[in-house]
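We include the pair:
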Amino acid sequence: MTVQIFTSVVNRPDFVEIQKKLFDKFLEDEYQFNVVDDSLDEEISLEFKEVCENYGITYYRKNQENRSRNESRWAGARHATETIQWTFDEIVKNKHSKDLILFLDSDMFLLDDFNITEYMKDTVISGLPQIRGHVKYMWNGIMFFDMKKVFEIDPHLDFSDGLVDGELTDIGGHFYYYFKKNNVIMKETSVTYPSEFEGIDLQNEGITKGFNFELHLDDKFLHYRAGTNWHTQENWKLKEDPLAKKAEIFNKIIGYFLNDSTFDHH
């Protein structure tokens, strides 16, 4: 079985290239990497398409009608929900109904040996729990699905945010209803906040502006955080990272794991 990995992108074609190199190095499964291009900038889209062609990545371009280049980051967050739903409904359900699926943030990077097939044995859905009051649901940044089992139970997944049983949720909030209705127990992933790397302080909020690096799933995945620049309106969805020092640290981390001391993703 080929594992299907999906990420939706709006900027940072360089991140796609890095993700692919790290999958090739550390992922033990046969896999296909799928990129859903949700960019508002046609020049960036051309770069995404070129990277995908160069690295054998399956490329999908989502229609951008009725969207504004000046949309707020909050409108962008809502659109991100719609993009995940569109990807699941139009691509995953139609083409990969019997496959193992990983939805991954565009700024999430595999740093250790990992076998998704083994990890998902006897599991329907896995992800990082989010809790709002009594409502537990699944964060959208790392989500695993065994689609054969999902179809046997109920293939109608709702990735929506909003008010759920009286609690305000973000993307994925409506999974609360799915888990409750179908008695599905989510296999929970973990998140930690590393304090340092090679003597570099990773918790310096003067550098990260509060978007500190995260490690997910027993420290196997590095989450850059805010890679789409949604945290700063003036740079929303541009390629350049306004947190230059954080980007330098990221270069060092990725260079270490790719065994390339000269690595620079710009």
Notes: Residues 230-237 have pLDDT under 50 and may be disordered.
